[in-house]
Amino acid sequence: MNRTTAPQGYALPAMLFLAPALILVAVFVAYPIVYAGWLSFYKWNGVSQPLFIGLDNFIRLAGDATFWLSFGRNIVVAGAALVLQVFVGLAIAYCLVRVVPFVSRFFLFCYLVPVMVSEICIGLLWRFLYNPYFGLVNGGLKAIGLGDLQRGWLGESDTAFLAVIVVMSFTYLGLYVLLFTAAVRSVPESLYEAADIDGAGHFIKFFRITIPMVWDAVRANVLLAIIGSLKTFSLVFVLTNGGPNQASEVVSTYLYKVGFSSFEMGYAATIGFAQMVLTALGAWIIFRFLRRASGGGED
């Protein structure tokens, strides 16, 4: 077979196999992005004819304090995800593989249950748990003698955002435990045996062997957590809808209210377009930082 002409013979079948995925990406990803970018230059209520207003929406966005406060909360959510989901998930995965492997399947199943359940159902369940009158959270505090700490967790500005972060951490933790469990199991056993000979404990093994050996998985999961945190919507919408008094507002819930409550579709498209750009920029910065941290150098 002529190697110079063989790829041409496979080009058509390859394109046929790729066509369904490319069509889906073009229709449901590329087109909405282009359309949102186009609509961001218009004032439109969703019904009447769009009115071209140039950069007015972007100028308004630059001075929109609610948008930037919402984006700041997304940054906080991302930071919490890195600690409470990615790092804790890696630590739990190490324990399941290296410390208590005989019960790893049972605990892995327990951690995966929230991942398998719809986010809407998770949000509704936690609303019952946080209920100030009959919720399990306040009931548990009262049962252990901490009744003074009882409060309306989702109804108070001081606690609503923290309560949402707790729910997110419990919901998504299992996904990272699963991903890291597969990565930790791929670490050569000989490295741990050598560490045992040197008398290293689990703390040293975790930081000196496990983390460096699964760094590619760490980098991928950090990016996954950052991107997911910057576009989170479902749990916030179900739990608080951004309230009370916008105390737990994130960009996606603010976008939803602007578009479907105030019917400012053009400005909502601007918010969505800016969210996409900021998310891509944040992911790129984190990726380069992690690449340098691992000694990978420049792209």
Automatic annotation (TrEMBL):
Compartments reported by the entry: Cell membrane
Topology in membrane: Multi-pass membrane protein
Residue ranges constituting the ABC transmembrane type-1 domain according to the UniProt record: 71-286
Pfam families, alphabetized: BPD_transp_1
GO biological process: transmembrane transport
Residues annotated as transmembrane: 12-34, 75-97, 106-129, 160-184, 218-239, 265-287
The keyword Manganese is assigned to this record: no
Domain of life: Bacteria
Keyword terms of this UniProt record: Cell membrane, Membrane, Transmembrane, Transmembrane helix, Transport
PANTHER family to which the protein is assigned, alphabetical: ABC TRANSPORTER PERMEASE PROTEIN, INNER MEMBRANE ABC TRANSPORTER PERMEASE PROTEIN YCJO
Family: Belongs to the binding-protein-dependent transport system permease family.
Designated name of the protein: Carbohydrate ABC transporter membrane protein 1, CUT1 family
Organism encoding this protein: Devosia lucknowensis
